[in-house]
Design goal:
Helix content is 18%, strand content 22%. It is α/β, with parallel strands linked by helices and 305 residues long. The protein has a single domain, classed as Rossmann fold, CATH 3.40.50. A hairpin with an 8-residue loop joins strand 11 (259-263) and strand 12 (272-277). The longest helix is centred in the middle third of the chain and has 15 residues, at 129-143. It is globular, with a radius of gyration of 18 Å. 49% of the residues are buried. The mean pLDDT is 92.
Length: 305
């Protein structure tokens, strides 16, 4: 149980909707932003307005009606894909797990974008995400009743890039991760020494030319090694390396090409699963508008582990 157990919900929270906890734009009358160091990514793209070496970050929280302040909750931190209409929209545009998690007590936390082009600073090994994310986790644990052993990252596209950074930097705070498309950043932050295992599910399309499958395989392989799995490569999904992972019946509307495997020799409580589809080319595999089957598949995995 976290320090927030027994506390009433913060006044900023309205159950049943996304509630802004920190306003990145610094808008008058809105909750104050979280201040973190300014950063510039390797491509020269800066974080939002920088004043005296500091910049603003924001985030949102979704809590369902019926929240029990004495019952430890799972927490799903979320990162959307690039290109939504505003930095703040990045904090509310991820997967709506509230539609599929039944009566489970789950807190969802959406992070606003970190770059001024409506994207995350997902290739920067010194991004202020590595300051911001633990600050957000600390705030959630302090103000809500959290099961600290059941916290997860969910991302698609650029949100998956960020998640691959977080399994390196914060494996001791994340129980599991679920990724749709994305890649492993070429430059990672300093990874935690002797990291604990993190359960992971990777969903990628064979025809994705934007975030290629080849670009995500290293992140999957790193998690195999981190978890101490017998298999060390995600390129091989044959019978000797992996076992069919059953797609639950609740996952309806998935393309017939969806196939999932669980790599052999991983801890039973921390599997590494690879799911693939063969949709159309280009951006079709981003899964952002693919329907509820994506986040139903992800929720099933989170709920198991």
């Amino acid at each position: 149980m976290s320090a927030g157990c027994g506390k009433d919900l913060p006044t900023l929270v309205t159950t049943g909707k996304w509630s802004e906890m920190a306003n990145q734009d610094g808008t008058a009358g809105k909750p104050p932003p979280v201040m973190v160091p300014c950063t510039v990514d390797p491509n020269g793209k800066a974080s939002p307005p920088c004043v005296n070496g500091m910049t603003r970050r924001g985030y949102w929280v979704y809590v369902k009606a019926g929240y029990d302040k004495n019952k430890p909750s799972k927490v799903i931190y979320e990162g959307a894909g690039c290109g939504d209409t505003s930095a703040a929209h990045g904090g509310t545009a991820a997967y709506p797990y509230q539609n599929v998690d039944g009566d489970a007590q789950v807190i969802q936390v959406g992070l606003d974008y970190s770059r001024n082009d409506n994207c995350y600073d997902n290739e920067n090994p010194t991004s202020n995400d590595f300051t911001f994310f633990p600050m957000v986790m600390d705030a959630i644990e302090s103000n809500f009743c959290v099961d600290k052993s059941k916290q997860y990252w969910s991302g698609y596209s650029t949100g998956s890039w960020v998640g691959n950074q977080f399994t390196c930097a914060f494996p001791d705070r994340l129980r599991g991760v679920v990724f749709a498309t994305g890649n492993e950043p070429k430059s990672q932050p300093t990874c935690k020494a002797n990291p604990p295992p993190v359960a992971g599910l990777f969903l990628h399309d064979e025809n994705d030319t934007y975030n290629t499958k080849v670009g995500m395989l290293p992140g999957c392989a790193r998690l195999l090694k981190q978890n101490g799995c017998t298999v060390q490569s995600c390129s091989d999904v044959g019978a000797a390396a992996a076992t069919a992972y059953p797609v639950p019946g609740t996952v309806q509307g998935a393309p017939g090409s969806l196939k999932c495997v669980s790599f052999n020799g991983c801890p039973a409580t921390s599997p590494v699963v690879w799911c693939s589809t063969t949709l159309g080319g280009g951006d079709a595999s981003h899964y952002s508008g693919a329907g509820a089957w994506v986040y139903t598949l992800f929720w099933d995995f989170i709920n198991k582990y």
